[in-house]
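Homework help thread (please don't just give me the answer)

Our assignment gives two proteins as sequence + structure token strings and asks us to describe the second one. The first is just a warm-up. Here they are:
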Amino acid sequence: MKGLIYLAGPLFSEAEREFNIKLAGMLKNAGYEAFLPQEDSSDNSKSREKLDSRVLFRKNVCGIDKSNLVVAILDGGCDVDSGTAWEIGYAWARGIPVVGLRTDFRTLGIEGTVNLMIEECAMGIYKSVEDLLAFLDQKE
């Protein structure tokens, strides 16, 4: 394996969860291990009813701490998902590289693609899964 990637992104709609699973599969096919919170920390609507939120929080923090890289899904309009923003900031503070994936073509106008605090944490923000995978392939 090439390393562990923590996949940060929204996981609240069926479409988001399906995209996350698809992206995790593509990362695995490229030789990476992927930590996917909706699966690896059981962060979903059913578990949130049963598990203490502190348990989910600790599992996700542990997943980030063990990762070599965070891939953050930055789709969703002008604002990044708040949980994803926290994961990006935490990874950056821990010295774990962050790469953004933003397939959403909306921008903040003259300010940039996403909030400058998010943008400055990322090594790069890629507009397609193919571009992201090409970057990861070059990085090796």
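The one we have to describe:
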Amino acid sequence: MKFKAEIDVMPHDALLDPQGKAVSNTMKNIGLPEINGVRIGKHIRLFVDAKSEAEATKKVDDACKKMLVNQIMESYSFSIEVFNEK
């Protein structure tokens, strides 16, 4: 089976996010002062061939821990669904 994973990676809340801070400050300059606390992360989409959703979940979690996420500075969450090519 083929699964699609959508992964969101964000800096830990306790860490400074210079990109997010710059965007927050710019919101004031463009007339949107009510938007603040911006945090900038990344979104990753990948496809996994696996026999079950549980196996796909394990593979995606392993990929996050081993390569995609710096767990010292970032946290992650993901969702998995069966991918039906049309």
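TA reply:
I won't write it for you, but here's a hint about the kind of observation we're looking for: The chain has two helices and three strands.
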